[in-house]
């Protein structure tokens, strides 16, 4: 089955151009939209796997749309494609549930790669933005008190914990697979099992959990 995508942007030439590039690459465009209201309505009707979404669209804006899409379908992947690379915009989008953020200066190949990687479960950011997001999560979780000794807390296997530490460092599935001498599929399975155990919906939430538990600090010391 082909990868299904919805493209949301209020500029027709840009929206049509992105949709055309994705179609030519073999992806299936199931819907396009120019406003937040259209995006929410059409996503419910077409259930795309990935939504390529501009932040600055007629109300509701891209952050609100991201929240609504993820609340309605936790499995959907939202890739922000915005002219803004401002810290506040990036963090608000990620907190709303976006799993990727590219600025519009990205090349066609970078966009195609990002859509495919986001669909596969990776988080994808324009260079420099991933560190910004991880830094903010560490700032919010700057105390060991975030760790829990709750006996009822989910227990991860040693391998799941090892994979989670590398996820917290910002490595892609491919990089984790190469680091641990595992297949890409095995890494995906470990991440999906971890998400299920922790009752989380996407990799962005998983990164935040790992940092809150201090796993990224464990990695620095290992």
TrEMBL record:
<dbReference type="InterPro" id="IPR001789">
    <property type="entry name" value="Sig_transdc_resp-reg_receiver"/>
</dbReference>
<dbReference type="InterPro" id="IPR039420">
    <property type="entry name" value="WalR-like"/>
</dbReference>
<dbReference type="Pfam" id="PF00196">
    <property type="entry name" value="GerE"/>
</dbReference>
<keyword id="KW-0597">Phosphoprotein</keyword>
<dbReference type="GO" id="GO:0003677">
    <property type="term" value="F:DNA binding"/>
</dbReference>
<dbReference type="GO" id="GO:0006355">
    <property type="term" value="P:regulation of DNA-templated transcription"/>
</dbReference>
<dbReference type="InterPro" id="IPR016032">
    <property type="entry name" value="Sig_transdc_resp-reg_C-effctor"/>
</dbReference>
<keyword id="KW-0238">DNA-binding</keyword>
<protein>
    <submittedName>
        <fullName>Response regulator transcription factor</fullName>
    </submittedName>
</protein>
<dbReference type="InterPro" id="IPR000792">
    <property type="entry name" value="Tscrpt_reg_LuxR_C"/>
</dbReference>
<feature type="modified residue" description="4-aspartylphosphate">
    <location>
        <position position="54"/>
    </location>
</feature>
<dbReference type="GO" id="GO:0000160">
    <property type="term" value="P:phosphorelay signal transduction system"/>
</dbReference>
<dbReference type="InterPro" id="IPR011006">
    <property type="entry name" value="CheY-like_superfamily"/>
</dbReference>
<feature type="domain" description="Response regulatory">
    <location>
        <begin position="4"/>
        <end position="119"/>
    </location>
</feature>
<feature type="domain" description="HTH luxR-type">
    <location>
        <begin position="149"/>
        <end position="214"/>
    </location>
</feature>
<dbReference type="Pfam" id="PF00072">
    <property type="entry name" value="Response_reg"/>
</dbReference>
<dbReference type="InterPro" id="IPR058245">
    <property type="entry name" value="NreC/VraR/RcsB-like_REC"/>
</dbReference>
């Amino acid at each position: 089955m082909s990868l299904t995508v919805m493209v949301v942007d209020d500029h027709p030439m840009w929206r049509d151009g992105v949709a055309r590039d994705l179609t030519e690459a073999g992806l299936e465009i199931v819907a396009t939209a120019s406003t937040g209201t259209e995006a929410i309505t059409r996503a419910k009707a077409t259930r795309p796997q990935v939504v390529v979404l501009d932040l600055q669209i007629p109300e509701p804006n891209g952050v609100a749309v991201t929240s609504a899409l993820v609340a309605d379908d936790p499995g959907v992947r939202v890739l922000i494609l915005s002219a803004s690379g401002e810290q506040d915009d990036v963090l608000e989008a990620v907190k709303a549930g976006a799993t990727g953020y590219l600025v519009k200066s990205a090349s066609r190949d970078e966009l195609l790669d990002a859509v495919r990687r986001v669909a596969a479960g990776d988080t994808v950011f324009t260079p420099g933005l991933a560190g910004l997001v991880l830094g903010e999560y560490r700032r919010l979780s700057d105390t060991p008190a975030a760790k829990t000794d709750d006996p009822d807390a989910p227990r991860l296997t040693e391998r799941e914990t090892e994979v989670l530490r590398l996820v917290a460092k910002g490595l892609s599935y491919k990089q984790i697979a190469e680091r641990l001498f595992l297949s890409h599929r095995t890494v995906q399975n470990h991440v999906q099992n971890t998400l299920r155990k922790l009752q989380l919906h996407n990799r962005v939430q998983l990164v935040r959990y790992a940092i809150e538990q201090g796993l990224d600090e464990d990695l620095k010391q290992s």
